[in-house]
Write a structure and sequence with these properties.
AhpD-like; 2 domains
Amino acid sequence: MARIKYLQLQDATGDAKELLSSLTQKSNKLSTFAQALAHRPALLKTLGPLGQAVGGESTIPKRLKELVTLKVSQLNGCRYCVAAHTGIARKLGVSDQELNALNNYQKFHAFSEKEKVALEYAEAVTKQVGNFSDQLFSRVKQHFDDGEIVELTGLIAYFNFMNRLLDALQVDIDFQ
């Protein structure tokens, strides 16, 4: 159960009402995520474009981004993000075997070397912040150009933020 009240459209005013109305028109149902963050509309408005900037289309395959997102969310124990992104990953062709192997990705034969390096980098950025080895960063640079490294690091940082935000508020999973 969430630690804060979900803001209902009928109770919202000003920017929150406008934002929730817009979201309702797009999806026909307000998520608990949106209802929780609507208490601060500027935050909710900002997170969407930022999430698109790091998670949207780019030269990094969407499948790899979802694996990284799931790894970060698993490390942080974010039930909401794991549930949401497991479904997205499956739609992108990630198998149940691959999903189950994320905790032991280094030994899983089906992950490519690039995927393993990205997952190791996600783990290091999440657990060690800036204190990981130059050797790891050199391996990252073998697979990703500078722009992709910025994007990958942004994705990892974004989900570390989202995991902590949603977990601290104990936002309920409202989807299957």
